[in-house]
Amino acid sequence: xxxxMPVFGTIASQFNDPGMNALYHRIMVEIVDKTGADLDSSFxxxxxxxxxxxxxxxxxxxxxxxxxxxxxxxxxxxxxxVELARKLFGLKQxxxxxxxxKAGKERDAALDQxxxxxxxxxxxxxxxxxxxxxxxxxxxxxxxxxxxxxxxxGRDIRVTxxx
Length: 163
What we know:
The protein is mainly alpha-helical. The protein contains five helices and two strands; from the N terminus they run H-H-H-H-H-E-E. Helix 2 runs antiparallel to helix 3.
């Protein structure tokens, strides 16, 4: 009869699951009862219920997705900063070229427009990116030197930049 059939709540994928342990114990008892086999076991099944143990807590199941989304967002931001820096470089080149030309009304009007466009774009550039670009020539010169010098805990570290 169905009422005599035991039911065990188990989580088979979970190590040392109480439900699986109880099922094992019951199977061993049934085998001994039906066959008379000498299957003595020191195993004692507990009466506690199976409970899912999470490697990643349920409220953090999307944490890898969140990291991935954050990285994609950062990459998009970097791409935007690169685009702005390239446009600013192009405008700066045009401004420098026009400044070398003979003064005149048309040249001055073009310079005003270019400088205005440059200033407007520069406001969109991140402050950290702007500082990196402003100090680029100095950084480039430091790496191009025979020796690169940086400080760690107030001590100069010198590294030869070529072999």
